[in-house]
Design brief:
- The chain is an alpha+beta fold and 127 residues long.
- The protein has helices at residues 22-26, 42-48, 67-76, and strands at 2-12, 15-17, 51-60, 92-96, 103-106, 113-114.
- It has one domain.
- The protein contains 3 helices and 6 strands.
- The longest helix is centred in the middle third of the chain and has 10 residues, at 67-76.
Length: 127
């Protein structure tokens, strides 16, 4: 099953940062924080040059159940999964404007890589 679905990400200096990875950049080491995600405020986004994107991205699903269960799951799903073969023109992106806080249509985010153990050092957020 293929489709396109809304997703979001942050980006700093061409490095794509997943929403759940922001906590490791924004919460000082050793400080306890029980939240699963920590999202940057508009002030932090301006200060550190963090961009916030939302958009329709490719999603691929492989059901490991029988046909009947698959249909039941698809009927219950809140996301339209019926787009059979998504193409680039099915994708769309918006970026949060740092001044107004409103979402503005934009092109595909210009990211070079994702954050992982090797690339984490490329993102400098803390002072």
């Amino acid at each position: 099953m293929q489709g396109s679905s809304d997703g979001e990400m942050y980006m700093k200096d061409g490095v794509k940062i997943h929403v759940r990875q922001m906590k490791s950049f924004l919460v000082p080491g050793g400080q306890k924080d029980s939240r699963i995600t920590v999202r940057p405020t508009m002030e932090q986004m301006k200060k550190y040059g963090i961009l916030h994107f939302k958009g329709k991205q490719y999603r691929y699903l492989l059901f490991l159940c029988d046909r009947k269960e698959k249909q039941k799951l698809m009927d219950e799903c809140l996301i339209d999964l019926e787009l059979p073969r998504p193409k680039d023109n099915d994708l769309s992106w918006r970026v949060k404007d740092a001044e107004t806080g409103k979402w503005v249509d934009c092109d595909k985010p210009p990211y070079a890589t994702d954050v992982d153990q090797k690339t984490k050092g490329l993102v400098n957020i803390r002072e």
